[in-house]
Design goal:
The chain has about 180 residues and is α+β, with helices and mostly antiparallel strands. Helix content is about 35%, strand content about 30%.
Length: about 180
């Protein structure tokens, strides 16, 4: 059973270990010192940042992280997409990782994304769509999105998370269901 809770400061050592895993470090390219993790994840954990950092669990054991946020709270991100795609009113996005290397390649990413997207419609009644940019080279990530029901809607040029990458990204989208599901 997949569940989640807000990331909290006692989770930072686990998050650091995940960020150091090669399969995560390649795409997240994040500093992993205790100070850097506290600096970058502390504000959301304390509720001082608009994003939600969610520790994802399988049968109460942590295996991943999802960051969920409204585009409206990050106008610089909307500006980067401007002229390339429409960012609808109420659009949200997610970033995600499976930190535990023993859980990679087992279908949990798809289940995690499906569960978070479904919950988004309930947790955020004003959410209209979820847009997720993914670097074109991150095949595993964009395949997970496709399996989770998101559709590729555009090729966009965005600043990469890892400076070794070019700006080529795919943009995936899923809209709020209209049938009440």
């Amino acid at each position: 059973m997949i569940s989640w809770r807000r990331l909290d400061e006692p989770d930072f050592p686990l998050l650091r270990r995940w960020l150091e895993q090669p399969h995560v470090a390649r795409w997240w390219n994040h500093e992993t010192s205790p100070e850097a993790v506290a600096r970058d994840f502390g504000p959301a954990a304390r509720g001082e940042e608009a994003s939600e950092d969610l520790l994802v669990l399988l049968d109460d054991e942590p295996f991943g992280l999802v960051q969920r946020y409204r585009f409206a709270d990050y106008p610089e991100y909307v500006a980067e997409l401007a002229g390339q795609v429409e960012v609808p009113q109420g659009a949200m996005s997610i970033d995600y990782l499976i930190g535990d290397p023993l859980r990679v390649g087992r279908g949990l990413g798809t289940l995690m994304i499906q569960a978070i997207v479904r919950a988004t419609w309930t947790d955020h009644p004003d959410a209209t769509t979820v847009l997720v940019p993914v670097h074109t080279g991150n095949h595993a990530s964009w395949r997970i999105l496709e399996k989770a029901g998101l559709r590729r809607v555009a090729d966009v040029s965005l600043e990469p998370d890892n400076p070794i990458d070019d700006r080529a990204h795919y943009l995936y989208r899923i809209d709020r269901p209209t049938d009440g599901s």
